[in-house]
């Protein structure tokens, strides 16, 4: 095992407790420093979660040369700005999804990455869990016959009126917070199958407080193969931040059967894969190890080995491009960026 990472936490957000605080307890990486808007909050967080110290400001944290990687769990609209600032200071970054507020801002960040000493990874943690690898293996095995449909849904209850995910200026919205997972997973599957997504239709409903911010967004696409004889795969994406419950399901349907992952984003909470072929149904389990642990282990390995995975970066870019396309097709404005 490579040397533990010295991790700095930019933003004492709840997501950081899963992505870094809890994950590092399993990986053995070092919770070195944390910064929050209020230094007192940072000190309280450091004490509660056993970080070695609290930085007095965001700027002080990214200036710390002892840190190997900085995790950015700030609101969406601040991701790109602080990624660029951390890169400029010589740090590497694990930034929460989405990478940026829009495609133009993403491209600005990518240009900085190309000349930076460090690197930036987008925190699509689900993709590091063995569950996704098993889904892809079954999809390409032929067991399901010719693939006909892909259904992805990211549905959750209202997080509350004061939640920053409802703030347009902070790049809020259901697709930004949830739908990005569906888009990224669709692209991962499409790449595995050698197919290209084509958007057919998108429909959104705005939030009651700000109709620029999507409370729901549904879309229909097709995965079109380079093989002329192949039938396109119909894709349905459903996204909601006002649903009456939680549903992070992924289903692939073929001419001979189907596979359902009831919670593809957090398989540590439900690692089932339900495979139906003909009249037979079987249930597989992909393992309840944390997707955040798998992610952190990969980041450490890539950082220590100097890996710059431009294939993953390209998929992140295509995810951002499709987010913009969905907003435009549904009549909503793009989220405002701060860079570029």
Short description:
This protein has helices at residues 14-27, 39-49, 58-62, 79-88, 103-115, 130-141, 174-193, 291-305, 310-329, and strands spanning 6-10, 30-35, 53-54, 69-72, 92-95, 120-122, 147-155, 195-206, 214-225, 233-240, 250-254, 257-261, 272-277, 280-285.
Structural class: alpha/beta
Number of helices: 9
Number of strands: 14
Shape: globular
How far do the termini sit from each other?
Answer: 39 Å
Q: Element order, helices and strands?
A: EHEHEHEHEHEHEHEEEEEEEHH
Taking all residues together, what is the mean pLDDT? 96
Helix content: 25-40%
What is the multimeric organization of the chains shown? single chain
Poorly predicted runs are none
Largest sheet: 8 strands, mixed
Strand content is 25-35%
Task: Give the strand line-up of the largest sheet.
Answer: 8-9-10-7-11-12-13-14
* Rg for CA atoms: 20 Å
Give the topology:
Layout: E1 6-10, H1 14-27, E2 30-35, H2 39-49, E3 53-54, H3 58-62, E4 69-72, H4 79-88, E5 92-95, H5 103-115, E6 120-122, H6 130-141, E7 147-155, H7 174-193, E8 195-206, E9 214-225, E10 233-240, E11 250-254, E12 257-261, E13 272-277, E14 280-285, H8 291-305, H9 310-329
Helix pairs in contact: 1-8, 4-5, 5-9, 7-9
Could you explain the architecture of this structure?
Helix 1 crosses helix 8 and helix 4 runs parallel beside helix 5. This protein is globular. It contains 9 helices and 14 strands. The chain is an alpha/beta fold and 340 residues long. The strands form 2 sheets. The chain has an 8-stranded mixed beta sheet with strand order 8-9-10-7-11-12-13-14, covered by helices on one side. The chain has a 6-stranded parallel beta sheet with strand order 3-2-1-4-5-6, sandwiched between helices.
């Amino acid at each position: 095992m490579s040397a533990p990472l010295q991790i700095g936490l930019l933003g004492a957000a709840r997501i950081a407790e899963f992505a870094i605080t809890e994950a590092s307890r399993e990986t053995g990486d070092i919770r070195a420093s944390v910064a929050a808007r209020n230094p007192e909050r940072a000190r309280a967080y450091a004490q509660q979660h056993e970080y070695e110290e609290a930085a007095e400001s965001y700027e002080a944290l990214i200036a710390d040369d002892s840190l190997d990687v900085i995790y950015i769990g700030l609101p969406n609209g601040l991701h790109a700005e602080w990624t660029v600032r951390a890169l400029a200071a010589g740090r590497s970054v694990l930034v929460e999804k989405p990478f940026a507020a829009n495609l133009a801002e993403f491209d600005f960040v990518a240009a900085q990455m190309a000349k930076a000493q460090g690197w930036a990874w987008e925190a699509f943690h689900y993709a590091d869990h063995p569950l996704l690898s098993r889904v892809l293996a079954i999809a390409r095995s032929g067991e399901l016959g010719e693939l006909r449909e892909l259904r992805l849904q990211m549905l959750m209850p209202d997080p509350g009126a004061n939640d920053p995910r409802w703030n347009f200026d902070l790049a809020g919205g259901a697709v930004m917070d949830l739908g990005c997972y569906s888009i990224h997973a669709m692209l991962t599957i499409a790449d595995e199958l050698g197919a290209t997504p084509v958007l057919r239709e998108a429909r959104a409903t705005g939030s009651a407080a700000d109709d620029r911010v999507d409370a729901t967004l549904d879309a229909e696409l097709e995965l079109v193969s380079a093989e002329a004889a192949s039938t396109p795969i119909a894709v349905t994406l459903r996204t909601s931040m006002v649903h009456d419950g939680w549903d992070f399901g992924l289903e692939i349907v073929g001419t001979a059967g189907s596979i359902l992952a009831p919670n593809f984003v957090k398989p540590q909470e439900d690692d089932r894969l339900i495979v139906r072929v003909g009249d037979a149904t079987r249930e597989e389990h992909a393992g309840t190890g944390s997707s955040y642990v798998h992610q952190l282990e990969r980041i450490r390995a890539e950082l220590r080995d100097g890996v710059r995975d431009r294939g993953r970066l390209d998929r992140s870019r295509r995810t951002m491009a499709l987010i913009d396309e969905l907003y435009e097709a549904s009549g909503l404005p793009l989220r405002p960026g701060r860079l570029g």
